[in-house]
Task: inverse folding
């Protein structure tokens, strides 16, 4: 297969880069973006890199009305030797296409979008922050653009990739959070869109998050929508528990997002010879394990925070303090290992990192 | 309260209107649109009518990523005496604010948006088609616009109202449809967003609809997401059945949209002295009633079609032909009565219609 051709139009006016210590998550964007169009006649076409700019859409564009929208999140890191590294980007585009299938959006060619992503990151390489814990957040997304109010899959789409330099998720070091088990609102149900990375799932989650924050919790722990009994996810992350030496995480059941960090964590734990099981976990089991002094650790996994330790779980009127509210050993080791591999500081035995420079030089 | 002030900028170039017999649903838009902005500092502000035009948005605008989007659908009709009538528009804005609450979008002032809607319809009055069954479809909607990738409610929104002249839903007269009971995909679950009119619900419904159409069915009949046993909605309409003389419709349970046509139908049936009950209806009950020869009618209710008779229900391998595949008496009477009231041809005993001319003259 020949390499996809991506046209490039460079920006003439470079924006000012944010100061390293003032980086926030997802507020500043780089000088360029990737864009590609889809029409029923021509399929996906015209992949191009252009200056970062507003997009102009008809008010009847279907995404505003019927929400056909999928996205991904990954990061580019600068190693201490100045190498630009991506972490398992092919997994993101594999998942993007799964989300596309669920949302009736035409699949993209993974080679084209990965090449576009690499060239974009290469062009905006100076935007990758260098400080500990910082990175360049990458947001590929697809939206339906046909101006039509019929409830049907759109015949026109745009795919974009935008980049945002982000600060350390843990400004004062990795810190356990307090989360509330959600008993009223439901994030997703089997047969719904819970395992697709689509806008509507996030819209549906805001209310519970708002209520939880107003009560002083950082995140909500979602239960299944059918029995409201089994653990699903925490906020927008997957969740792991260590119960009496066994590490467990909810099995992928159709309503849980198949996290790439989740997958990496499972691989690492197995490599370390630790017992890790994907299965149903009820909230009752957690409460009982806590009573018995066997709930040893809990942590979320996701691209933004990598590993987010849970120090306290609230279920109805009960408070379950985990590991004295401290970051557990497993969470610490996972965080250090994954971020070490991502930054090129530790050996990449799984072949997870993809270097951007090398590839683009071979164009 | 003083009347809200809505600034008006008229279009200088009028578009060509579509021919009456070529009207489709939701493909053509009028010369003007209503728009209003929200910021955390200023609240909802600057309501205005401007020429219909594309909107320019940052690629990071939150609606593209996290789907905070709510909408409404209603119609304006031209009576035989040339009066412009809206049908229960205050109910739409009441429901819009309920959807806003669920999606963490700030409420709008119903008086302002209703006044904006009336002025907009008045300005684009020439676009209201006159032929039997035609009308001007009205689409108010709100989208989140803040350029930010954090998962949180947006601090910026736009509300728009756009207008589209639409043809008769039944080109060859009211015609019963064949629908399949959906057993794999789920539209919504209690605790989710099923009772809000938000984009994600429609995105989630596309796949099942695509599968149903490929098998020759017009629509899917949704079951509840928990037990997959109880009837919820048909396609994007509410559903009614006549079983052994009793008219029944699923009770509002948190995952069913509170349809305005549904509400009007219940009022009319009661006015006619007919028995109408809102309750749980299982698919097993329908199958049994059909076997016993007691499933006498089925019809969907919604703004687009008003009343959509169901001639055949498919459940697994069973086919339930209803009323010999013909439109039932109740469906016919409801369709004639509601469209008659909407067009000003029948007495409006409930005070459902709102005349646009009169109101705007009093400005």
Result:
């Amino acid at each position: 297969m020949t390499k996809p051709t991506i046209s490039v139009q460079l920006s003439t006016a470079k924006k000012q880069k944010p100061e390293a210590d003032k980086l926030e998550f997802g507020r500043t964007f780089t000088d360029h973006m990737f864009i590609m169009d889809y029409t029923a006649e021509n399929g996906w076409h015209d992949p191009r890199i252009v200056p970062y700019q507003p997009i102009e859409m008809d008010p009847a564009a279907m995404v505003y009305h019927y929400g056909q929208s999928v996205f991904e999140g990954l990061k580019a890191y600068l190693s201490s030797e100045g190498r630009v590294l991506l972490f398992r980007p092919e997994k993101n585009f594999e998942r993007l296409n799964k989300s596309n299938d669920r949302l009736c959006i035409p699949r993209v060619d993974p080679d084209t979008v990965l090449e576009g992503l690499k060239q974009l990151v290469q062009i905006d390489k100076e935007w990758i922050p260098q400080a500990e814990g910082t990175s360049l957040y990458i947001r590929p997304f697809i939206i339906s653009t046909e101006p039509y109010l019929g409830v049907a899959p759109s015949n026109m789409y745009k795919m974009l990739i935008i980049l945002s330099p982000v600060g350390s998720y843990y400004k004062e070091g990795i810190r356990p959070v307090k989360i509330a088990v959600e008993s009223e609102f439901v994030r997703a149900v089997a047969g719904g869109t819970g395992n697709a990375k689509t806008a509507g799932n996030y819209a549906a989650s805001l209310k519970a998050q708002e209520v939880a924050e107003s009560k002083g919790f950082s995140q909500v722990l979602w239960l299944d929508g059918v029995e409201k009994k089994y653990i699903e996810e925490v906020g927008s992350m997957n969740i792991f528990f260590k119960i009496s030496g066994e590490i467990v995480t909810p099995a992928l059941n159709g309503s849980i997002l198949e996290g790439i960090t989740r997958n990496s964590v499972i691989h690492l734990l197995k490599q370390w010879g630790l017992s890790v099981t994907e299965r149903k976990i009820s909230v009752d089991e957690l409460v009982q394990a806590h009573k018995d002094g066997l709930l040893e650790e809990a942590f979320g996994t996701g691209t933004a925070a990598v590993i987010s330790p849970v120090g306290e779980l609230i279920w109805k009127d009960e408070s379950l303090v985990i590991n004295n509210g401290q970051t557990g050993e497993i969470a610490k080791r996972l965080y250090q290992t994954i971020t070490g591999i991502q930054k090129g500081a530790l050996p990449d035995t799984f072949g997870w990192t993809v270097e951007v420079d090398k590839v683009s030089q071979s164009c």
